[in-house]
Amino acid sequence: MIQRRKSRKVKVGNIFIGGDYPVTVQTMPTSKTTNIKETVEIIKKCEDAGLDIVRLGIPDIESARTIREIKKLIKVPIVADIHFDYKIALEAIKSGADKIRLNPGNIKEKWKVEEIVRACKDNGIPIRIGVNAGSIDRSKYPKPTPEALVNSAFDHVKILEDLGFYDIVISVKHNDVITMVEAYRLIASKCDYPLHLGVTEAGTEFKSTIKSTIGIGTLLMEGIGDTIRVSLTGDSIKEVEIGVAILQQFGHKPTYVDVVSCPLCARADVNIIELTNEFEKKVRNIKKKVKVAIMGCVVNGPGESMDADIGISCGKNGSAAYKNGKFYKKINNNEILDFLLEEVNNFKENTKS
Ligand code: SF4
Fold it and tell me: What phi and psi values does residue 290 have, to the nearest 5 degrees?
């Protein structure tokens, strides 16, 4: 049983980050925020894939103003990602941003930070302080070590705390997984602010999947982390799909059709790879919690099939079908896909004895 680190909770639109709330998944659309049509299209696809919070890059006043329009067309709360300019932050808040990402130390004049904090307090909006290897002050922290990332984050946190503001989320990202994990462990031991996890600049899909799964997964195993973003050079929807798949392993997101399939070897007489891929494609949008085993032969087939709600253990002259943990009947090998689909469609959740 994983004991979650006790973090304070902050409200972002209609959801919470921190406390006992499930860990949420975030992404950033790859479109220009001012291209409302494209941005909304991306967000809607991501919502269908399990997105909880969207972060929008807000490089200028015009982008800040579009938040008002985008908000009307989507379901998830919006985080406005702002750097340096307090006027853009104020405009984003006025336009309905549910949270802002901003490092107050990057804004030199204190009165400007005070204005932002006042606007956030008035609107009940939290601020994420996001430190990463590329953005820490190198004159103060020459090397982006875990200690440097954490101390740099606390420099920003102190500015907000001195203004009596505590609705803070922190991230200390790095592109090196081990440095990232150590930085989060360190900051987790020093404060109770909710943490936004991510391996930054993690590369293209394949590499980012591995780095993010190790980095985010290790921390979640230790109970650290309240919201995540998988960062990859590619489609936003992939970030969401990978993020959701990570969170499913920890029970923070529901797993619907959960497929257990064998890797296929010389013993199998059925093409399990083709069969499983076809099956997964067809059940992709079914929101029903059901475990299905697709196994190539009798070595592990009956065991895994009995452990699932629906199972198939393939053989040379037909396959053994299982339902609710028991042998059900023998079927022809060319009927397997239809059998599995029909049983999934007929399956009633929680009927397993
Ligand atoms: S279940 Fe059978 S076919 Fe599949 S990997 Fe194991 S031994 Fe090979």
Answer: -145, 135
Domain spanning 257-346: CATH 3.30.413.10: yes
8 Å CB contact between 89 and 113: no
- Please give the CATH number for the structural domain made up of 10-249: 3.20.20.20
Question: What is the dihedral sign for C-alpha 11, 84, 144, 54?
Answer: positive
Q: What is the pLDDT of residues 298-322, one digit of tens each?
A: 988 999 999 999 999 999 999 999 9
Is the distance from CB of 37 to CB of 9 less than 8 angstroms? no
- Give the tens place of pLDDT for each residue, 160-188: 999 999 999 999 999 999 999 999 999 99
Centroid of ligand 1 to alpha carbon of 321 (angstroms): 16
Q: What is the pTM of this model?
A: 0.92
Q: Is the CB of 264 under 6 A from ligand 1?
A: yes
Q: Which helix (H) or strand (E) holds 329?
A: strand 326-331
Residue the block writes with tokens 């032969």: 297
299 close to 280: Cβ distance less than 8 angstroms: no
